[in-house]
Amino acid sequence: MNTELMEALTILEKEKNISRDVMMDAIENSLLSACKNHFGTAENIKVIMDRETCDYAVYAEKEVVGEVMDPALEISLEDAEKIDSSLHIGDVAQVPVHSKEFGRIATQNAKNLILQKIREEERKVVFDQYFEKEKDIVTGIVQRYVGKNISINLGRADAMLTENEQVKGEVFKPTERIKLYVVEVKNTPKGPKILVSRTHPELVKRLFEAEVAEVKDGTVEIKSIAREAGSRTKMAVWSNDPNVDPVGACVGMNGARVNAVVNELRGEKIDIINWDENPALLIENALSPAKVISVMADPEEKIASVIVPDYQLSLAIGKEGQNARLAARLTGYKIDIKSETQAIESGDLPENYMEQMGMMGEEGYTGDFEDEYDEEEAYGKDYDGSYEDEFYGEDDTTDEYDPEDEAEIEFIETDEEK
User: Fold this and answer.
1) Which long-range contacts (C-beta less than 8 Å, at least 24 apart) are formed by 156-159?
2) Less Cβ crowding at N or C end of the chain, within 10 Å?
3) What is the rounded average pLDDT of the residues 102-107?
4) Which residues pair with 159 in a beta bridge?
C-alpha cells in the first residue's frame, strides 16, 4: 500500500473537494508523459494503478526478437528470459519501468502536469459550486473599493459588485457582510467570473423566500415584482391556500418579516398587494394606497384607463410619478390616470355622474357625500369639525366671508390642484 500517496489524495479530496479518481487519472497521465519524455514514445507503455491501495506499476510492452533494432519497442530473447523464462521469439514481454530512473526534465514535466490538473479541477469545483447558486442570494464580505466597483469575498471565490449593480446612496465598509443576488456565473481560464447585484428585483423575492416559510414552501406565490432600488418596491402575491392570507404572511406579526427584508435593503419601502387574475382589480390593487373609482383595462392592447377621486390624484401618481410607474411595471399595463373632474370634462364619465353617486340632488348640491368623502380619514381621528388651517386661522369656520380673502384663497386652491 502506497500510504504517502493515499494520504496526499485524501487531503486534496477533503480540502479542495477534488475527486480521488480524477487525481489518479492525472497521475497515470503524468507517468505516460514522463515515459514519452524519457523513451521518446509512450505508445507501448501501460500504467496499472490500484484505486484501493494507490499502488502503481509501469510496464513497457516489447516484442521478443533475435536481434534488437529498436530498444524502445524490442527486447532480446536473452533479456526477455531474465524477466520470464517462458518467453520465446515473437512473444510480447512486459518490461518493468522504474520511475526513479527518469531524468530531471521528465520528472518536472510529470509534476507540472499533476499541478495543472489540480488547478483545473479546483477551478471547476468552484465554478460548479457557484453555478448552483446562480439566480439565488449569497452572503459576501466587503473587501475593498476598486474605483467605483466593490470587491466582494464569497468564500472560495471573489465577485465584483459593479457600479451599475449598486444601489445609489449605499456605502459599505470593509469586512461588512451583505447579501447579494447572483446574476450570472461564467467559466473563464482564470477561474469563475461571478456577477452579483444589489438592484435586481429578484433579490427582494429571494429575501422573502428566506424570511417567509409560506413563500419558501410554495403556499404563497410571488407573482410579480417592480422595483426602483433604494426607493420603493411593489410586490404582488397570491395564496394557493384559501386559509392563508398572502399579504399577512409576508408582513408577519407586527411587520416582523417585512421589516427584516426592509432592514437588509437599508430602508427601502416595500408595498405588498394581492394578485388578481382580473386585470382591473390587479391595477386597482397596484395603485395602492390610492383609492380608485373605476378601471377600464384592455387585455389585448395592455392599456388601462383609471379614474380616481380629485383628492387622491397626487397619491395615485406618487412622488415624481413613482407610484404609477411601479404599478405599470407590476401589471404590465400602460396606465392613464385621471381625476373625477378631468374624466367628466373629457367625457369619460357621464354628466349626471355626480347625481348618480348621490352627491347632487334636484335642487343642486346638498352637501351630502354619502360616505364617499370621509372627514375623519381626510383630517385624522381627532377631527372636531374645524379646519384650523393656515388661511382661516384657528377654528373660525363660522366666520363670515371676507371678500379681501378671495384672492389668497383662490391662489392656494389653484396651487393645491397643481
Assistant:
1) 156/126, 156/129, 157/126, 157/130, 157/191, 157/192, 157/194, 158/194, 159/194, 159/195, 159/196
2) C
3) 75
4) 152
Asked if residue 295 has pLDDT above 80, the reply is yes
Q: What percent of the chain has pLDDT over 70?
A: 82
pLDDT of 402 above 90: no
What would the pLDDT profile of 232-246 be if each residue is shown by its tens digit?
999 999 999 999 999
Which one, of 81, 96, 94, lies nearest residue 31 by Cα? 96
Bridge pairing between strands 56-65 and 74-76: parallel
Mean pLDDT of 54-73: 81
> Residue type at 34?
A
Cβ atoms of residues 238 and 275 within 8 Å: yes
Q: Where are the domains of the chain?
A: 3-125, 133-197, 200-275, 276-373, 376-418
Query: What's this model's pTM, rounded to 2 decimal places?
Result: 0.66
Q: Which three cell numbers stand for residue 164?
A: 451599475
DSSP assignment letter at 66 = S
Instruction: Look up cell 394581492; give the residue.
Output: 274
Where b means 16+ CB within 10 Å and e means fewer, 379-389 reads eeeeeeeeeee
Question: 3-125, what's its fold?
Answer: N Utilization Substance Protein A; Chain:P; domain 4 (3.30.1480)
Rounded to 5 degrees, what are φ and ψ at 187?
-95, 120
